[in-house]
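Lab notebook, bench 4. We co-purified these components, and the gel suggests they stay together. Before we commit to crystallization screens, I want a quick structural picture of the whole thing.
Request: model the full complex, all chains together.
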Amino acid sequence: MDNSTNFNTFKGSADYVAGSELAMAVNVSIALEKPLLIKGEPGTGKTMLARSVADALGMELVIWNIKSTTKAQDGLYVYDTVQRLYDSQFGEGDVKDIAKYIKYGKLGEAFTSKKQVVLLIDEIDKADLEFPNDLLWELDRMEFYIPETKETVRAARRPIVIITSNAEKELPDAFLRRCVFHYIEFPNEEKMSEIVKVHYPDIEMRVVEQAMEKFYEIREMKDLQKKPSTSELLDWLRALALSGVDIARAEEGLPFMGVLLKKNQDIDALAEYRVKGYTTVGW
Amino acid sequence: MFIDFLYFLRAYGLKVSLNEWMSLSAALDKGLGGSSLTGFYYLCRSLAVNSESDFDTFDAAFAAYFEGVVSEKDIPDEFWDWLNDPRIDSEKGPEDLLSQLAKDFDELRRMFEERKKEQKERHDGGSYWIGTGGTSVFGHGGYNEAGIRVGGEGRHGRAVQIAGERRFRDFRRDNIIDTRQFETAFRKLRQYSSRVDAAKTELDIDETIEETSSNAGMLKLVYEKPRKNTIKLLVLFDSDGSMLPYSRLTGRLFHAVSRSNHFKDTKFYYFHNCIYEKLYTDPRCRRGRWVDTDFVLKNLGSEYRVVFVGDAAMAPSELERKGGNATIGLPNEETGRVWLERFKKKYPHSIWLNPIGEESWSRIFGQYTIGKIAEIFPMYELTLDGLDKGIKRLLSNR
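Here is the predicted assembly.
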């Protein structure tokens, strides 16, 4: 593969603001053909990154959403034994052709694609503890073997692999060592207004400034169980813009608090904080 | 080339190996890193570090290694004024970058100070004076990658500043035992059974063959319930006073248990030194945030595996005397021992994990109560080995 064409191709896209160090990590991962492991607070745009990379490079995005029950095998292929048994019973289809009953999972899909794709393995930490280890070979060699058909599926064009993790579980060392790692920091105010502008180009700057001020004030509070993040700010801004409520005038309470804070206890804590200047709810 | 830097990182405790070094070399060969120290910093970090908790260690190591790049604070204002935009942009290979990085920064700083004195006017280009562009090691936008940056959008030196800020200090964890190791240990705590409420989703091969044969060869599929872990776990943490020094360790244990999703049920309660009428629902053991211990004993069936986590070190009266509860205003009508024995009787599978090393149990404060409690519950030290043994005990009760 010609790396020079791939190098430095990602700089963020029309609707995604990527910091230079994030862009660097993406490009390193592409050039070295290693999976990119993205960690960060929820709502910092980990999943969005993959879409943005795919858009910027003009590639298709294959998303593999990981759940607690997901097995590594699910991503490769599923052999539909039952269908084959039924077909043999009723004499339908060509049961000798095992390949017909092999259904590729998302990883298999990415490998067999003719064009290079971006493969997002979303929230890898949701799965079983051993899940990442089970994928080491496949991600390293970009191939897997199907015993039923005695066939090896090899990636024609090595997909760009982006893996996100919310750090719910620790990932195994052997897996970590194969990845390029990047931690998305929570954006500072300057970066945040850039992000807001990308999402809502027409929004009034006055609304944004007021909302951001409140937003960072709330984030500063130590007693919150779940701090609001970028996506919550964006939702909040939209709610404010749509309703036309003025934050500065709504003194008795911030409007649409439920969009920013998702836990009752946090909302209580904030209310108390605004009255007394401190809160004991978290204690 | 540059191996000493990786050894330097290792000396700081980062787990970098030949693997990372080779990746780094490959990346530099491909021209990644943007030919600047800042680029090099991010490149290195993305390859050598794989957890945000190690960012701080990396920052410290990087700053120490590339120390000596001066900050702008003692630079006169007029320098700022005429160092506005870079005039020249050049691409340099990784070889140059590396050789330049290895330069002696102290020497540079000294030269900088001297030249600052000599120099009287603005300077662009050239190879000696401080200014924009040019190959002099001072100024910015120039060719000399190891140079000292003087104002402007930095291409050199910034990395060390970023590293020097050490923004990731909060993420640090000096892990003796990390959460993953605990999680792995807890995975051994399982007892599979298919007698659980679940949809029948797994093909039962034996039954299918049986049924199909008796169906004159017509296929008849039989499904069964998947086997699931039936272990229920009750964890009781001693979480105040004398346990504070161990809060990190017990915190990791807590995380490991709460993240383990393979238990059928997990319950957590907290206590202070010993168990009495109330169990706290919150690690700070605040008054009012509690449930009756009787309630727990009545509601959680004896199939629960019980793990006590505590140092078991207390005044003998707290264990043996009525009203011995150390928490002021909460006199207990029954001794702590009675309560502990109640747990023992109800839950045959129970262990006590003690963060104090086993070798000190018999010769530190609290040795009396540690000994007495160890007679009630099998006691293990809170290390990987101890946890392993304890989990075996929870499963077999032998």
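Chain A touches chain B at residues 3, 7, 20-21, 24-25, 27-29, 31-32, 34, 37, 39, 68, 81-82, 85-86, 89, 129, 168-173, 176-177, 179-183, 185, 283 (CB under 8 Å). Worth comparing against the SEC data before the next meeting. Chain A is about 45% helix and 15% strand.
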